[in-house]
């Protein structure tokens, strides 16, 4: 998680980095680095609700939710999301990338997003969207992989947290659907490639190996 903090601190448009936690073991692990942590309720139904609790004590117009399992998040992506909200009227913004060639769009753990012609999200799903009705026509569908980072207008974020979870959100277990089900706008920033999120012990070991090879240290 400290790697995530360090990456976000490299951003040009970020004023401060705060880690929202619900377990003292996390804050205790981050204390030696001088990282700012805020203890939040363990009862939040989503990460967005947790971020909203912290945002109530802030005055910033834009708040970004960077997941703690993205130690290789690129600072340019975070800055791009902030710039989008500063230059538009969107309620929130997120990120997607064309599906990597070695990734399976049918994997429900990989969230897909479809967008309108102006880049606004139409829907997010664990299912394959769009669904090619006639694959034999020679026009393969283009799939976009959603990356779990969000930027919000603070006012909208607090409003979002006041709404109960919505039917599609509960069915798909995707918190961003709550915003769409209320008719709100999510801009999708397209980036060239996905960063490596960490969901398993194996992925963590692979990250440690990459980090060690990039930044060799004496023992």
Q: How would you describe what is shown here?
A:
- With 219 residues, the protein is of the alpha/beta class.
- The chain has a single domain, classed as Spore Coat Polysaccharide Biosynthesis Protein SpsA, Chain A.
- It contains 8 helices and 8 strands.
- The strands form 3 sheets. The protein has a 4-stranded mixed beta sheet with strand order 3-7-4-8, with helices on both faces. A two-stranded parallel ribbon has the order 1-2.
- Helix 3 crosses helix 5.
What is the count of β-strands?
A: 8
Please give the order of strands in the largest beta sheet.
3-7-4-8
CATH topology: Spore Coat Polysaccharide Biosynthesis Protein SpsA, Chain A
What does the largest sheet look like?
A: 4 strands, mixed
Keywords:
219 residues, alpha/beta, Spore Coat Polysaccharide Biosynthesis Protein SpsA, Chain A, four-stranded mixed β-sheet, two-stranded parallel sheet, 8 strands, 32% helix
